[in-house]
Amino acid sequence: LEDICRFLLDHRTLSSRCKRLRHEIKDHVIEYFPVLAACRDTAADVGRGNTIASEQRRTGIRDMVMANAKRAAESVRVLEEVFKLLGGRGSIKAIRYRIYIIEKDILRLV
């Protein structure tokens, strides 16, 4: 979303909002990076070649924005669930709702 706002829409404010969100997410998960990296086994990943037809096509910028916003929101939702297991970090939920708002703001422009 950030690059869409920056390079396709040339929209400084939306690009900055996306960048801030990206860094906030990073700040929430950075302490887990070493564990996550150690758990990743790309060669044996059962989902590696698992694609569906709708992932392979986009009809335009609007479709690309919606797909990327959905992926970002789903990712943050997964982090919410993982953090529940780890005992907290409720503020990440607010990030998901900010993604929904940014998506609407971008869609108004495309």
Explained architecture:
By secondary structure, the chain is mostly helical. 67% of the residues lie in helices and 0% in strands. It is built from 5 helices and no strands. α1 runs antiparallel to α2 and α2 runs antiparallel to α5. The chain starts with a helix and ends with a helix. 9% of the residues are buried. The mean pLDDT is 89.
**How many separate helices?**
5
* Helix and strand pattern: HHHHH
Uncertain segments of ≥5 residues (pLDDT<50)? Answer: none
Strand content: under 5%
Could you give the distance between the termini?
12 Å
Radius of gyration, whole Å: 16 Å
Mean pLDDT across residues: 89
Helix percent band: 55-70%
Question: What form results from the Cα inertia axes?
Answer: globular
Helices and strands: which structural class?
A: mainly alpha
Largest sheet: none
Element layout with pairings:
Elements: H1 2-8, H2 12-29, H3 33-39, H4 61-86, H5 92-107
Helix pairs in contact: 1-2, 2-5, 4-5
Please outline what is shown here.
With 110 residues, the protein is mainly alpha-helical. It contains 5 helices and no strands. Helix 1 packs antiparallel against helix 2 (12-29) and helix 4 runs antiparallel to helix 5 (92-107).
